[in-house]
Amino acid sequence: MSSSRNTRTKAVSVDVVVVGAGFAGLSAADRLVSMGKSVLVLEGRDRVGGRSFSGEVAGVRVDLGATWVSRRHTAIRDLASRAGCTLTAQFAEGRNVLWMAGRRRTYQGTIPKVSPAVLVDMARVQLALNKLVASIDVEAAWNSPQASEFDAISFGEWLDRKHATPATRAMMTIVSKVQWGCSPGDVSLLHALRYIRAVGGVDHMLDVEGGQQQERYVETTQEIAKRVAEQLGDRVVLGTPVRRIAQDENGVTVSTDSEEITAKYAIVTVATPQRAEIEFSPALPEQAAGLAKNWRMGILSKAFVAYEKPFWRANGLSGEGLTDTGTVFITFDVSPEAGGPGILMTFCDPRVFDGFSPERRRSMVLEQLVQLYGTQAGAPIDYLDHCWGEEPFAPGGPNPTVGPYATTTYGPALTEPHGRVHWAGTETAGEWAGCMNGAVLTGQRAAERIAAAVARESQEVLAR
Ligand SMILES: Cc1cc2nc3c(=O)[nH]c(=O)nc-3n(C[C@H](O)[C@H](O)[C@H](O)COP(=O)(O)OP(=O)(O)OC[C@H]3O[C@@H](n4cnc5c(N)ncnc54)[C@H](O)[C@@H]3O)c2cc1C
After folding, report:
1. Which ranges constitute the DSSP H helices of 199-268?
2. Nearest atom, ligand 1, residue 20 CA
3. Which of 270, 384, 431, 445 maximizes ligand 1 atoms within 8 Å of its Cβ, making it the mutation to test the pocket?
């Protein structure tokens, strides 16, 4: 990897320029190099990994962004395995904790057994949701049979129409905050259904055992990206935001603050709103420009609290907790081993978190952990948090918050190439959109399409 600021000054020409060094960009470059193409990956941040980023708490590397993989996430698992990264099971032994309507309870399994009536209602709403999810065309949700109807209302309005009880609604609000970084009222029903379908349905989305939260990487997910980038060497250039992409019938010219790179094609892997930060010449068609403006990123924050030992395990608790009040809404045990340190990873609602000082954020998190896990939770040995909405470059995550009408209006532009500019990135995936797995698949797909196009053009030149 190199930094543009001091080492790259000359004009460069390659087969393909890749914009962004998250999993989509790195996978595209990795695949193109394996097919003998010359590539340059330009990354705006001073690090690789994008929405995969590591931090350290009590001397343990932790995932500030993407964490888990399911057994079905074969593309990211293959990449990680080639990079020599190792999986560990998400700890899930014991009872989970629930803080709802001011009361603490413990329960076993994914769905809190609050009362028989609540269980029945959650099962009813989940069944209805799964029925709608099954009707979604995962590759083109906007072409699904009832797409217009589903895109005209928010997920929250649908819950109202279903007369979801407050407990069911609280559960679905947690789902919405984790998946789309917003409340159910801010996201279109169609967008929600598309993402649930993409990640294998409601059960697979929520479960630890056999679901999306089954395993995580000991070395962290950003380490996978770092190792892939190391293999790509000087082909990955950090601290180099792409400002402009111009094209004609012969190729593209990609401009950064300090240089112009010419290539036959470009693959842009940035998240949808960040497409709007790049000037395209010729300009993007109306629908593609509308997509970049209207598919804004959601926001999610995370805090990690470390203790001498995972003390909750001795009390028969898994470290998995759900709450419907305050800033923390989910907790998980991400301790490296039983002997310590014990680490609780918490998801925090940015609206009641990001604006406060680091000290205030820490005390808010600790107060809620004491509610869930008792007084021992008030005496940590270390603390770390990360507010994705406050990132100075490419802020937000995990996924776009797409409101009513924006999926049917702009969705078709997600993957439609703009001449010699192709799109990748997890948002452009069908199956596994929103996951690292989707990002890897889209990078590989774009690489293969471009390699085929380059081969076709070479044959045409020879035939002349
Ligand atoms: C808090 C959080 C938790 C998550 N949890 C999980 C999880 O448990 N499991 C899972 O599978 N996924 C999870 N995700 C989602 C996962 O991180 C993403 O799906 C995946 O990493 C996206 O990869 P990508 O390459 O498509 O995009 P990104 O990772 O966003 O990469 C795009 C890159 O483009 C760069 N860029 C933007 N604009 C420019 C420009 N103009 N010039 C140059 N570079 C530019 C950005 O800096 C970024 O590095 C989580 C995400 C977050 C934020």
Report:
1. 201-206, 221-232
2. 34
3. 270
Q: Is the pLDDT of residue 226 over 90?
A: yes
Domain 113-206: what homologous superfamily? Answer: Guanine Nucleotide Dissociation Inhibitor, domain 1 (1.10.405.10)
The answer, yes or no, to whether any atom of ligand 1 lies below 6 A from the CB of 435, is yes
Tabulate helix, strand, coil % of the chain (nearest 5). 40, 25, 35
Our answer on whether the CB atom of 51 is closer than 6 Å to any ligand 1 atom is yes
Kindly state the tokens that stand for 57: 């708490």
Percent of the chain with pLDDT over 70: 98
For the chain, the domains span 2-50+221-284+418-463, 87-93+212-217+299-390, 113-206
Is the shortest distance between the CB of 382 and ligand 1 below 6 Å? Answer: no
CB of 394 closer than 6 A to ligand 1?
yes
Give the three-class secondary structure for 309.
coil
Burial environment of residue 282 by CB neighbours within 10 A (0 to 12, 13 to 18, 19 or more): exposed
How many angstroms is it from 400 CA to the middle of ligand 1? 11
pLDDT in tens, 432-454: 999 999 999 999 999 999 999 98
What confidence tens digit (pLDDT) does each residue in 375-404 have?
A: 999 999 999 999 999 999 999 999 999 999
Instruction: List the CATH code of the domain at 2-50+221-284+418-463.
Output: 3.50.50.60
Among the listed residues 74, 90, 91, the one whose alpha carbon sits nearest the alpha carbon of residue 82 = 74
Give the DSSP letter string of 106-163: EESSSS----HHHHHHHHHHHHHHHHHHHT--TT-GGGSTTHHHHHTSBHHHHHHHTT
Q: Looking at ligand 1, which residue's alpha carbon is closest to its atom 6?
A: 66
User: Which of the listed residues 436, 440, 442, 445 should we mutate to test ligand 1's pocket, taking the one with most ligand atoms within 8 A of CB?
Assistant: 436
